[in-house]
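FIELD: query
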Amino acid sequence: MNQWYVQTVIDAGNEVNEALADYQSSAEKHQYYQRQIEVLHEAYIGTHELMDNGKASYLEVLTAQESLLSSQLSEAMNMYSASKALIALYIALGGGSK
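FIELD: result
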């Protein structure tokens, strides 16, 4: 067999493997981020209720909200990474890139 052909097949397999690993990693992180967002949302609601009852300051509410928004942003970035990995997988499997 032609050495160039063998190397091309190996490179293609590596591209597919890498894209699959990236996508699976993003999928696993998605579960984590969803739970984190759920918990931080509950914390934000609880802190807001505490402020309404005079037990917490507005700064504590803002801090809880900032944590929630930061987690939501991380999840959005993770979803973007998953999309990029899926596109890379499609291309590595022979899909058009144009």
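FIELD: remark
The mean pLDDT is 92.
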